[in-house]
Amino acid sequence: MANLILKNLYKIYPDNVTAVKDLSLEIKDKEFLVLVGPSGCGKTTTLRMIAGLEEISSGEIYIEDRLVNDVAPKERDIAMVFQNYALYPHLTVYDNIAFGLKLRKIPKDEIKKNVQEVARILALEDLLDRKPKELSGGQKQRVALGRAMVRKPKVFLMDEPLSNLDAQLRTQMRIEIAKLHKNLETTFVYVTHDQTEAMTMGTRIVVMKDGLIQQIDNPQRIYDRPVNRFVAGFIGSPKMNFLEALIIEQNGRIFAKVADSLLLVSIARGQELKDKGYLGKEVILGIRAEHLYGKGDLLARHPECILSGRLEFTELRGSETYQYVKIAEIEVVVRVDSELQVETGQKVKVGFNMSKIHFFDKESGVNIA
Ligand code: ATP
């Protein structure tokens, strides 16, 4: 059991930089929790406070119901894996992995058994005699993981462990770390600025901005129900499209008016907008590229959900293509089947799947319907 509780954490650096503001979070046993957000949002600081490497300005941290505010890092039963691997260059892979165990004066035989076990899991068996400089980036990262694993910690903390690897290796290591989590059945807290990593690895995601938690949820819910415009724009690739829209009522029906065209809003959503006082007001309409369509049945069947634009350029991605379409002065990205070929510069119609649309308050950015 290794649950972790963060209560009202603050970190204020000298010069009054508030890196983490009133952060409360319960990390469950065996969970893979990802802290994600743009550079400077406070995720590394949060992780370092959990590790005991950074002093807490105020608040409390509990590991397994034990207050650890004043417990030294090495007494916290956690292991941290860093972006730059932090391997000892003069030691072999074997000695790097064994280092922590030797410090703890574990008998030699036991160390050997443990190192070999870890090396087997991480496919490092043939590399045990090499020095770090003789390893590839991915191999170094596996050694860093091995060094953490061999201590059998209650909690693994990882700070952007894959950011020094090339794209292909990153994808591979992503899968390996996710598998490792499954096999080890240990709590993982993982920091990244890469939303793809967060979405594919985390059982729960914490999205942060400016030291504040924006949303905590599982990946699917974060994607489908972002609480505000920031989360909606940060999670998902390509980025969610945002358009300004005026909410109006005509003949008893609610429409979102975008660049002089009307999009029919469903009765329920329309009522919600009306109840919240948005009639006659501008809001931000958000829709993902896969919920816009370029051609086909839906376009023919739903003339009330179509805007016209001009195709600016296309990006072939294999089976799908991103079409960048300018509607009035706003560019939206539409994800279409690659078989749908349209020449750039042509006028195109863009259909909106209105059941997948989000409305955000223009000032606060809060998701309103
Ligand atoms: P990145 O992805 O760039 O590492 P992050 O989300 O991990 O960013 P932090 O490193 O936690 O962000 O930094 C949060 C804020 O605290 C930033 O504004 C940063 O400049 C500031 N900060 C971090 N470390 C210190 C420090 N030692 N002294 C003063 N300010 C700091």
Automatic annotation (TrEMBL):
GO biological process: carbohydrate transport
Residue ranges constituting the ABC transporter domain according to the UniProt record: 4-235
Gene Ontology CC: ATP-binding cassette (ABC) transporter complex, substrate-binding subunit-containing
Protein's UniProt keywords contain Nucleotide-binding: yes
Protein name from the UniProt record: Sn-glycerol-3-phosphate ABC transporter ATP-binding protein UgpC
CDD domains reported in the protein's UniProt record: ABC_MalK_N
Gene Ontology terms, MF aspect: ABC-type transporter activity; ATP binding; ATP hydrolysis activity
Gene name for this UniProt entry: ugpC
UniProt entry keywords in alphabetical sequence: ATP-binding, Nucleotide-binding, Transport
Pfam assignment, any one: OB_MalK
